[in-house]
Write a structure and sequence with these properties.
This protein has about 110 residues and is α+β, with helices and mostly antiparallel strands. Helices cover about 25% and strands about 35% of the residues. The protein is built from 3 helices and 6 strands, in the order αβββαβαββ. The protein has a 6-stranded mixed beta sheet, covered by helices on one side. It has helices spanning about 1-5, 50-65, 80-85, and strands at about 15-20, 20-30, 35-40, 70-75, 90-95, 100-105. The longest helix has 16 residues, at about 50-65. The termini are far apart.
């Protein structure tokens, strides 16, 4: 975990807590044309509980508000790929180890009366 935290810029990294206990972390690093979703890890005890979905929704909501594209890479065969696809990420490229994905920002919801 120390190596992970050392490789992530703290200004763009969040610790995920559940019930006051460490449950994971995630980074949303700015780049030239997008933000990179990186280091999204959840402890096995909270995986499948909806915590990852809630965290991802909040990060994507912020990017949508700012009109920002989001990029990520996920290991081939990782179940996390399904989570990302459910949230609008699409395939950019597949390599022997990694799958690269992107999500365009959603337009703001209009209010019609």
């Amino acid at each position: 975990m120390t190596a992970l935290l050392g490789s992530a810029t703290s200004a763009y990294t969040w610790v995920v807590e559940v019930g006051g206990a460490f449950a994971g972390c995630v980074a949303l690093r700015p780049a030239d044309d997008a933000r990179w979703l990186e280091h999204f890890y959840l402890s096995p005890q909270v995986q499948g509980s909806g915590i990852g979905t809630a965290v991802l929704r909040e990060l994507l909501r912020r990017c949508d508000r700012d009109g920002t594209l989001v990029r990520l890479n996920v290991l081939r065969g990782s179940p996390a790929r399904r989570l990302y696809e459910r949230h609008g990420f699409t395939l950019v490229a597949e390599e022997p180890v990694d799958v690269f994905m992107v999500r365009a920002p959603l337009p703001p919801l209009s209010t019609y009366r």
